[in-house]
Write a structure and sequence with these properties.
- By secondary structure, the chain is of the alpha/beta class.
- It folds into three domains: 88 residues, Rossmann fold; 61 residues; 177 residues, Rossmann fold (3-Layer(aba) Sandwich), CATH 3.40.50.300.
- It contains twelve helices and ten strands.
- The protein has a six-stranded mixed beta sheet, sandwiched between helices. Strands 2-1-3-4 form a four-stranded parallel beta sheet, sandwiched between helices.
- β9, α11 and β10 form a beta-alpha-beta unit.
- α5 packs antiparallel against α6.
Length: 365
């Protein structure tokens, strides 16, 4: 485990930053509040950069983690001033992805995101070498860096081709499911909301639940019972996170697209958290679903962890979020599962009636 100093903007949720640091196997030795991240030559004020650099040396940390997005130039400047590695929020998330990736497709998706992150940093490194600077902890020559830059560009192209093959394979699978007539129910929600726990409850699986961010990076599909003789395919997907850059969403697009083609999307919300945190995570989730062109009538809001806050607490959360159509559950305690199944079936039957009405045969005499 690496030891790190963590810089967080005042007013930002420290708990999420600490959760991500732990998920990336960092030990946070100190949290340093800063006024603003992303401005100036180091991404933080000159005085605060000097203070953090001094504290990092005194504590003997391996890295300075800045919980925000730094430009290539800012990261190099802070690294040069502090003498230790600098990890911004994007890099932190990528490190978690790399730890969690298990399947060949997930590893390719993570690699694509990593290379996209690396390219502007390589350009900055080349610029600094040409200016005669010693760029922080790196001692590469211009020729070696330019060769590596070309290698990264070509590797991104090759990985892009491979990911498109996976995407085509998914489309073939979706066509097979449509011919089979089995509806698809997909789980969505902020990372840590309890999607995998609910997946296990509905599918009778025993997938590992770690309590860390991004337990799931690939889609897993199993059969779930809806009642009577009705069944559906249940799919678990990668969790959401606020402030994800477009290139990360793009790298996992083929995985996230499962949500777009699902017959029902269960949006899992952790109702046990602070109301302001619940709102931020819920709004982030809704924005991502909108970006993926998921149709609102197919989305069912699922308020999880009623065992922690009670029914009154969950109803209050729903009212504050303006929810009208929602289901209350505890995935861990298996509470509300029958009600959840009934509501999934209700949405599916409404879609089936709509399709039957719109069918050309419906108007035939």
């Amino acid at each position: 485990m690496r030891r790190a100093l963590l810089a967080v903007e005042r007013g930002v949720d420290e708990s999420e930053a600490l959760e991500l640091m732990e998920s990336a196997d960092y030990e946070v030795v100190e949290i340093v509040p800063v006024r603003k991240i992303g401005e100036g030559r180091t991404g933080i004020s000159t005085g605060k950069a000097e203070e953090i650099s001094e504290r990092a040396k005194e504590a003997g940390v391996d890295a300075i983690a800045v919980y925000g997005r730094l430009s290539s130039s800012q990261a190099f400047n802070l690294m040069k001033e502090s003498g230790v590695d600098v990890v911004d929020r994007d890099k932190l998330i990528l490190e978690i992805f790399a730890l969690r990736a298990r399947t060949p497709e997930a590893k390719l998706q993570v690699k694509m995101a990593e290379l996209t992150y690396e390219l502007p940093r390589l350009r900055e490194l080349i610029r600094r070498i040409r200016m005669g600077e010693q760029p922080g902890l790196y001692g590469y020559g211009e020729y070696e860096v330019e060769r590596h830059y070309d290698h990264v560009r070509k590797l991104r192209i090759r990985i892009g081709r491979e990911l498109r093959k996976y995407s085509r394979h998914r489309e073939v699978q979706r066509q097979g499911r449509r011919r089979w007539g089995m509806p698809v129910v997909s789980l969505a929600g902020y990372t840590g909301a309890g999607k995998t726990t609910l997946f296990n409850a509905l599918s009778k699986e025993r997938r590992p639940v770690t309590g860390h961010a991004f337990t799931t990076l690939t889609t897993t599909t199993r059969t779930m019972w809806l009642g009577g003789d009705r069944h559906a395919l249940l799919t678990d997907t990668v969790g959401f996170l606020s402030g994800l850059p477009h290139y990360m969403i793009e790298a996992f697009k083929s995985t996230l697209e499962e949500l777009k083609y699902a017959d029902v999307v269960l949006l899992i919300v952790d109702a046990s958290e602070d109301p302001a945190v619940v709102r931020r995570k819920y709004e982030t989730s809704m924005e991502i679903l909108q970006e993926l062109s998921v149709e609102p009538p197919r989305v069912l809001q699922v308020l999880n962890k009623v065992d922690r806050v009670g029914m009154d607490g969950v109803v209050k959360v729903a009212a504050e979020l303006g929810m009208r159509d929602y289901v209350v559950i505890s995935a861990k305690e298996r509470l509300g599962m029958d009600e959840l199944r009934r509501n999934v079936l209700r949405i599916l039957e409404a879609e089936e009636r709509q399709e039957a009405t719109a069918s050309p045969e419906a108007g035939a005499v």
